[in-house]
Amino acid sequence: MERHSQVYLEFYELHRDSYDSIVYFFEHHQGAIRQLPLEEQLELLAEYLNACFETAQYHKYLAHVDELIESLIIYNVETIHGKDEYTSSIFRKAAALFNLERYEESTFLVKQLCRMSPRSQNARILYRRNLYQNLSRPHQILRHSSAAGLLLTAVLTAVDLFAGRFIQPEWLSGILIVRNIVFVTSLLTLLVMELRIRWQVERA
Hints:
Helices cover 77% and strands 0% of the residues. The protein has helices at 6-11, 19-28, 30-34, 38-54, 58-74, 85-99, 103-116, 121-133, 137-163, 169-202. The chain starts with 5 loop residues before the first helix and ends with a helix.
């Protein structure tokens, strides 16, 4: 039967879903945790970081995650409790950076992750979200204008349906022409931008 140290056992007496308790325990027993065997240290550090992430304590997460990632590489640890902690940590780091609006750093990291794990849908979704946030100012204006154009199309359609009979035919004809032009232009613009971002994601 495998034997564990006392602080390790005390840690696992906590409710596993009580993230605040995990964070509190780890931060108040760091000295003792540093004295644990390597395997137990890494396991508790991974649990602590997961608790920080789940409670949106992203600054704390980023302050310690590199330590875990580097240790996994140095000591050639592939999994913790059967979980690929290396790629999971990189993904959560990218997500933490995204949530702190550090989009350029997040984009760089998640792009590397897409290359490491090309089948990871979560990585590709996060990469796409980063690309939207990193759109240049002109592209952001164009995207918002296109969205506004689709909203205007809906308004003009409502005018046609509910007030068309009260408007002179020549005016109504002009309104419908404007509506169709705005709709097609806005839709094509959004479609082209979406296809461009999807292309960037696919070639990552």
